[in-house]
Amino acid sequence: MKRVISGMNLSVYAIGLGAMPLSLERRPDEARALEVFRAFIDGGGDFIDTANVYCLDNDDIGHNERLVARALTTLGCRDRITVATKGGVTRPRGAWETDGRPAFIRASCERSLRDLGTDCIALYQLHAVDPRVPLEDTVGELARLQAEGKIRHIGLSNVRAAQLEAALRVARIVSVQNRCNVLEQRDFRNGLVDVCGRLGVTYIPHSPVGGYFGHRQLGSHPLLRKLAQAHDCSPQAVALAWLLARGDHLLPIPGASRPESIRDSLTAVSVALTAEDMRALDALG
Ligand SMILES: NC(=O)c1ccc[n+]([C@@H]2O[C@H](COP(=O)([O-])OP(=O)(O)OC[C@H]3O[C@@H](n4cnc5c(N)ncnc54)[C@H](OP(=O)(O)O)[C@@H]3O)[C@@H](O)[C@H]2O)c1
Fold this sequence. Notes:
Bound molecules: NADP nicotinamide-adenine-dinucleotide phosphate
Shape: globular
Number of domains: 1
Order of helices and strands: EEEHEHEEEHEHEHEHHEHHHHH
Strand order of the largest sheet: 3-4-5-8-9-10-11
Distance between the termini: 26 Å
CATH superfamily: NADP-dependent oxidoreductase domain
Structural class: alpha/beta
Number of helices: 12
Oligomer: single chain
Number of strands: 11
Radius of gyration: 18 Å
């Protein structure tokens, strides 16, 4: 099953890989990380989400981007995988803080180019809006980086509809990446997912199986377990199939630190939920 990222004029496999768990505190060793990428690519995956701050702290910036770059080189598939990264956040002593100043965005982007070993980033996402910096200034710098050929497309993350609309007045935005899963349906309720659909913006649900900390809760949810049994799949595959069925412009990016997890997530494309299943799942969030 394919998805078209219309703003990029690109067709990708309907489930991407969120590479974040490969670089945070519980990260696996590099050999196992490579097996995660291999499982994803062997299963047909071709869209990887990373960020410069998927790392331990400011001394470790770029860990995940360098890991992705090395893995794709080792697996010999750099040319056919789309890598999306992000800038606009820092990790002082391991905390997560925004920094949307244009000079910081530029420096982060230039470092990401080096860490990814590329001269143009396919999709560069503003990781989060910095409330101290006018969004127009931050997005204006992204537009300049795009005009200079350092980034091909611009995305946003952790935004509301009004912020997307403000950014669209400054630059072409092709994607929005927000927290969204069957137990956290905020962006369906507030209309942002529909707004993205109308504007031709791909909606990328992050934390699609409950998040780095919440995925166990989702995996043990009684309704998800019941539907998993009925469809002979995992609760996580049910959660991902629900997202896929909610719109053609949704591209979930489940994370994984084990190859088994991403292999299982890729099976979601063949889970056919009924209208009754969908109604029951819609009522959860
Ligand atoms: N833009 C943002 O602010 C933001 C924030 C958070 C995440 N993200 C992005 O979104 C991606 C996904 O979010 P996430 O990794 O936080 O949360 P997630 O995808 O909801 O959950 C990730 C965890 O769930 C487990 N899991 C995933 N699929 C599974 C399956 N089919 N069966 C069993 N367990 C499964 C994995 O466990 P194992 O580790 O045991 O494999 C993984 O560590 C991230 O990797 C990152 O790229 C972006």
